[in-house]
Amino acid sequence: MKRFLLFVVVVSLAVYGVSRWNGHRRVPETFTPVATAQIDLKDVQVLEALDRESTRLVQAVVPSVVSVTTTRRIAAPQVIDPFDFFLRRPRERVQNSLGSGVIVSKEGHILTNNHVVANMDEVRVWLNDGRDFPAKVIGTDPATDIAVLKIDATGIRPLPLGNSDDVRVGSVVFAIGNPFGLRESVTKGIISATGRVVSDESSNEFFQTDTTINPGNSGGPLINVRGEIVGINSAIGNFSGSGTWQGVGFAIPANSARMAMESIIKTGRVVRGYLGVVIQELTPELAAQFGISGQTGALVGSITPGSPADKAGLKAGDVVTAFNGKPIATIRDLFRQASSTPVNSKVEIRFLRDKKPQTVTATIAEQPANFSAGAVPPGPATPSPTPPATLSQDNPLFGIETAPIPASRMPDFPANIHGVIVAGIDPASPASSSLQPGDVIEEIARQPVGAPADFDRIARSLPPGKPVMLSVARGKLRLFVVVPGGR
After folding, report:
1. Is 115 a catalytic residue?
2. Residues 277 and 246 in one domain
3. What is the mean pLDDT of residues 258-280?
């Protein structure tokens, strides 16, 4: 009996073990891979061709893109050596940064951003093949954020600069650079907009692109489908404050970069053309005062004495519509065309004067070293004001206190200044939105103002409730303003 029970126990354990083993044994999965795509490959031949061409393009241009590493040594305060009380050692803190660049000549010239190399003690360039070289800074231009470097290297492959005037919104572009130190990174996108102004203090216009641009991409090229440089990547649209790409990046147009580069290589600095006009936008209100309808252009606020514009015969109040055959729609068009024109070039300027088209020829000069597109308004006026004329509240010049220009304030304004200074403005005056204390009113409705009596006389003659145009000097800057009609 005992043997029988032992036999039963052994058999039971064996059966249990076999069942457990079978329960944990992995059964192979059935797997049948798909041998072909679920689409007729003839239907995607164009896409395949585009993919091949994009790859060939990138392979052709990447060897021309370089990484730029910079070093800056910053002196730190002296510290006492703990091992020698009398020994003091100046210490340095080394600051390194990264950027990108692109080779543009067989001699080894490289374009990058000024902000990549500015105030750096050492600049080195790393090529696609792993070689690195010390770079000489040939010159920089903070105004366009362009710098030109040069390396002594053989076997390099420069890229051509394309015509950025041909770039259109929607054009496909590639950004190549060194984001976050990741060399030879390539991103693809389109031109989102042209003529972007990133800062009110800058006259530069940029391409906006959705191509990924991150820290380290600065100075790298923006390439078109022809393998040409159409822009130099310059800035991240950091609207979120994160410091990284948010779908908006900016690049310096190739034509601006070329102009700066050629001038730097030739002269060591950037030489810009100069016309000698202070210009302002032709707003609808100003256009109405000049009797111009449906016109675009740049309104001449004032002329610098002795400048090319002055010698050519341009006057304040002229509306420039074309410069050397190219239409002028905004003040930036005129500034860009004039500054990019070679010095001593003769240019034809078309404009409207008293609603009549006219043409003059000007010889472009070199932009002065202290040239500024704007002027700082003077401080508040302090002369004894003349009580405001007794004007009805429907007069546009109601509530303005005027006075002769004090002799002490004459240096604040243009040398040939004339008129009356605004000593105060009633907040209820229509002019409070256009004028400010310290302005000098030189003309009212194109009539010259020489003294407070002239101001009163002309103001009384204005039709009630109608806007009026004034010619004003605000510091060294002359401009036209439109005061809305009174109540």
Report:
1. yes
2. no
3. 90
